[in-house]
Task: structure prediction
Amino acid sequence: MTKDLNAVLMGKRKAREAASPATAPARAPLAKPASPASDRWQTLNAFVDVIAPRLTLAERAVWFVLYRHARDGVVDVSSRGLATAAAVDKMTVVRALRVLEAVGLVWPVWKSGRKGSPSKYAMHHRPGECLARVLARSAAR
Result:
């Protein structure tokens, strides 16, 4: 029944469009500014294409978890929460964060002094700009 109803509605729309005279020529759609969602896709693509092949699996996993939880480029997360989400040990998260900080992909905004409470990290929104530091680090290994 839904299929028949859709066919009837589509038929009425086409009949209406054919009956109405075209008064103005069709215009090209205006360009829209980049949305925050497209910026997130550009950041993700740049990371996957340029940076990720030069990091360890744990460093990639930690970055992806940070990226997933980022709101306006800032993440509130504990190292234990990162470890659970990335499926790695807490000390592996600490080492991965040190590397990500050293190459400029993330930096601490606020570090928690209390056990179990979250720290705040800011994320670089153009990871491709960190390539020189990543290359220098991978060459030193």
User: Anything to note?
Assistant: Helices lie at 2-19, 36-51, 57-69, 79-86, 90-102, 131-140.
